[in-house]
Amino acid sequence: MSAPATTTAPATSGFRPIANYDRPLWQRLLLTREAAIIGLFIVVVIAASAIVPNFSGQITMTYLLLDMFPILIIALPMTAIIVTGEIDLSVASVVGFSSVLTGVLTQAGVPFGLTIVIAIVAGILCGAFNGFLITAVGLPSLAVTIGTLALYRGLAVGLLGTTAVTDFPEFWTGLAKAKIGSTGIPVVMILFVLLAAAFAILLHFTRFGRGVFAIGLSPEAARFSGVNVARTKLLLFALSGAVAALAGIYYTLRYGSARGDNATGMEMQVIAAVLLGGVSIFGGRGALHGVIAGVLLIGVLASALRLANVTSDVINIITGVLLIAAVVSSSVFAAFKNRRRSGPKLRLAGTPGTGAISVAGSSAPRSGAGS
Fold first, then answer.
1. What is the annotated localization of this protein (predicted)?
2. Which of 19, 67, 242, 321 ranks highest by number of CB atoms within 10 Å?
3. What CA–CA distance (Å, rounded) separates 280 from 262?
4. What top-level class would CATH report for the domain 19-341?
5. What's the burial of 371, exposed, middle or buried (CB within 10 Å: 0-12/13-18/19+)?
6. Which helix (H) or strand (E) segment is 204 a member of?
7. Of 225, 281, 259, nearest in space to 78 by CA
8. 184 in the Ramachandran plot: left (φ > 0), alpha (ψ -120 to 50) or beta?
């Protein structure tokens, strides 16, 4: 009879539980970056209402939502783009270009309904051009969109020069500023809710959305899994252009002016809000509810500071600090989670001629006897 051989259960060194399901439901809902941003947004609203005079009034809420509407809708496709590991810095220039195009076509007597369609199609072409250079030519999105940022802004300024178009149909300008009954909520927020629902379904509940996250985690693995990486990115950039053009039309009607410098610098507000909302700048992670909370947090903070007579320079500094904090905290949080999940390394140790095998670091080995 030979001595009994003691063995441990087979183990795989690369095994790791699925992140979304290795904790209780309440932890998965509350202990997230998105939940933290929503909580911070609520705290800022309560503090601003208590400290800043007139902040809690209906008029403040109305103008806050009117001001944040273009950023809210542009942040929706921007979220998906950054999840794939890319970025689009040209969105504000597309807003300005579509604004100028709206003014030029209106001045030429084109029916305004057709003007809206033409402007949105132009935005789609701008976004698709970005996507083509990135996916077909293979250029980095940062370099491409910096270039097209200057290109589209140059086209906008070239079409109108230093002049501005200010004559638009009263029905459309009134609709851009209209409120839902006596609630103080702008009518355009209905459009935002519809767009947010559509993008949430697309990103979080469809095969296409799963492909977006897979691309952000590993484009090569996504490609081998059957995801058409190039087509997905091209579609996302085209969607970004379409939504930016829609924001440009709204911007024109909201302020009653089409100028080549409209929405200058808006791209930084959008990107800051997306990153603050929990989207990883490295791709592969993010959720729309956190992004929406991030946009509203920046808007509420800026509005409260303006009412408190804080200068725009200080507001920009605070926004920049929030952006840096969001990027740094995202990296620190990811490193902490990876360190917590990494278990003890496996080390096989055996004694020659005995058939006994042990695994170092195993806290609960299983034993089996044989004769």
1. Cell membrane
2. 242
3. 29
4. mainly alpha
5. exposed
6. helix 188-204
7. 281
8. left
Q: What is the per-residue pLDDT across 254-301, written as a single tens digit (0 to 9) for each?
A: 999 999 999 998 998 899 899 989 898 889 989 999 999 999 999 999
Predicted TM-score of the model (pTM): 0.83
Q: Torsion angle, CA of 267/126/204/202, rounded to 10 degrees?
A: 140
Yes or no: say if 106 and 112 are a contact pair by the CB < 8 Å rule: yes
User: pLDDT tens digits for 186-209?
Assistant: 999 999 999 999 999 999 999 999
Tokens of 116: 């809206």
Note whether 299 and 64 are within 8 A (CB): yes
> Computed from CA positions of residues 181, 293, 296, 270, in that sequence, does the dihedral angle turn out positive or negative?
negative
Residue 97 structure tokens: 């270009």
The DSSP result for 165-231, as a single string, is: B----HHHHHHHH-BSTTS--BTHHHHHHHHHHHHHHHHHSSHHHHHHHHHHH-HHHHHHTT--HHH
Buried-exposed string 278-306: b where 16+ CB fall within 10 A, e elsewhere: bbbbebbbbbbbbbbbbbbbbbbbbbbbe
Contact (CB, 8 A) for 232 and 215: yes
- Calpha distance 221→227 (Å, rounded): 9
